[in-house]
Amino acid sequence: MPIQLENNKRTAIAGKLAEMKAYQNLIIANEEILIQACSDRELSNRLEDFIRDDRKNLGILDTVIVQYGVKAEPSPKVQKEIETVGEMMQDPEFTLFEKVTKHELLKHKQAMSGILVHKAAQVVGADIEVAIAPLNTVNVENRAHQEQLKGMMESLSTLELTGQPADQGLWARVQDGMAALSGIAGSVVSRTDDEISIRDVIRMDHLKVKTLFRQIKDTEDPQKLEEYFGQVYQDLSIHSEAEEEVLYPAVRPYYNDTQKLYDEQAEMKKMLDQIKAMDPNNTVEFKAAIARVREAANAHMDEEERDVFSYLKDSFGDEQQKQLATDFKTAKSKLQDKPLSTTSSK
Ligand SMILES: [Fe+2]
Ligand SMILES: [Fe+2]
Question: Domain spanning 8-194: which CATH class is it, in words?
């Protein structure tokens, strides 16, 4: 029985990530509307800060989805809810307080989704934890926004109900709530998406593939073997193709051994296709074949990180490296949208 490349649990998590991206777009659209509707300086300043974070976090979500390597669409149910909330935000029948309350619920939902994806990743595989690690930043910022939205709700409802401003200590209390959160946040990496260089993106991919190989080494379960191999097959194929589209042509003028990198990848692809035709129930044979491709892949990845990276560092400016990172992610994302059979060399 040949390998099944798709795995249900992984597709379900992809659905959750797609849902988070759709909600993130809604959150940004809501904040644009709320800023327009808000006459209080304190509140509109905070909303301006939110929208800056949320646009950056949309970029992080995009990166996470591409790193995760499995694409999905948000369910029709989610799309319908997004439409309904969008209409409510435009509807003058609702007060600003009601709109901010709805927005706080969305933030809560988004923060919870982020946490739940992490929990699911812990169950499914260490490679997923590697891929979604940047989500931490999004989660922590969403929690901080929630604290501030609670303050906004207090401010708006006090005004609507009594005609008077909220008590003076309100924002100090909100500040305390946020400070309590920063303890949880710890040393979360909060780089904006456009600060990530090509070397970071490639290294993240390599780490994910190495994690998958380690998981394969540690299991005898044919189902797990099939799942992890399916992911290695997809990740490595797409990573290699994206390198051939973006990275290798860029370094070719500086790095004499570029052709060797192409050849190694062609060889790895051949090995992956051979394994794809094998039966994971013959665990010994199956794992031995994967061990061979692992050895080739590790040597290849080390060569890239040692030699190619030093040429990138010496010959390319920061801006160029960021541009390469963006081009690489875009190439990967496009390849992930195509059925994988088209990336097969067979
Ligand atoms: Fe490569
Ligand atoms: Fe690579």
Answer: mainly alpha
